[in-house]
Amino acid sequence: MPNDRLRDAILRNGMTPMEIAEKIGVDPKTVERWITQDRTPYPRHRHAIVAVVRESESYLWPNAVTPEKASRIGQNELIQLYSRRSSMPYELWRRLIDRAEERIDVLAYAGLFLVEQDPKLIDVLRQKALDGVRVRVLLGDPDKPAIERKSVEEGAPGVMAAKIRQVRQYYDRLKGAPGVEVRSHETTLYNSIYRFDDEMLVNMHILGFPAPHAPVMHLRRLSGGDLFSAYADSFDRVLSASKSIWDEVVAA
């Protein structure tokens, strides 16, 4: 089986297997075998490749890192644990947004607090998109039963759906901006995920507690770690099952 993840990572960085070979000092045919025959490079070559293509070692070669080692590295991916989201300094959110150069990903039911704590956020996101940053926002579908169930569990029936409809009005201002997607999902969320390049904030959900009162993990991706990549994969799974809110409007 070919290593499609490696092939895709090389192409996404605008490179060819020959250019990768030149950068890490191996024969181009060796790189081709890594791709077409899914051969696993030596550790020194794996480390060199992940530095070039900016993907994790465990993502490109899932079987190359033992679960024990991946777990140890994953522990080091945790920068800070906040006992509740409301205790996090806003400066951290703004720093992560400002420093993002490749992607800003948001997975939540509503995430209304983002636009409430920074009235200029939508303008900032539009400028980031114009600068080449991919912005993807996944919001809950306000018409699905899971949303009302979440509201009832938090003791506020109808509130979550109202928040989603409200926050959509903010994100509608990004319609037409290059590289921006705002999509709806009907997934039951166990966490809200906010990714900024290789850093991530994971807001854990607790039954009966609103998100501001639940813990947040601040993660930074490390090559070979499995904690960051687990949540990144979760985002991708929800993304694959989501649909554009702007397509919904057109269909209506």
Care to give the gist of this entry?
The protein has 252 residues and is an alpha+beta fold. Helices cover 48% and strands 17% of the residues.
**Portion in beta strands:** 15-25%
- Strand order in the sheet with the most strands: 1-7-6-5-2-3-4-8
Shape: globular
Give start-end ranges of low-pLDDT stretches.
none
State the order of secondary-structure elements, H for helix, E for strand: HHHHHHEHEHHEHHEEEEHEH
Largest sheet: 8 strands, mixed
> What value does the Rg take, in angstroms?
20 Å
Total count of helical runs of at least 4 residues: 13
Q: Helix proportion of residues, in percent?
A: 40-55%
**Count of strand segments:** 8
Mean pLDDT: 90
Which structural class do the helices and strands define?
A: alpha+beta
The end-to-end distance, rounded to whole angstroms, is: 43 Å
Describe what you observe in this structure.
This protein has an 8-stranded mixed beta sheet with strand order 1-7-6-5-2-3-4-8, with helices on both faces. Strand 5 (191-196) and strand 6 form a beta hairpin. The mean pLDDT is 90. It has helices at residues 4-12, 17-24, 28-36, 43-53, 57-60, 67-77, 90-99, 112-117, 121-130, 145-153, 159-171, 227-240, 245-251; strands at residues 78-82, 103-107, 134-140, 180-185, 191-196, 199-204, 216-220, 243-244. The longest helix has 14 residues, at 227-240. With 252 residues, it is α+β, with helices and mostly antiparallel strands. The protein is built from 13 helices and 8 strands. Helix 2 packs across helix 3 (28-36).
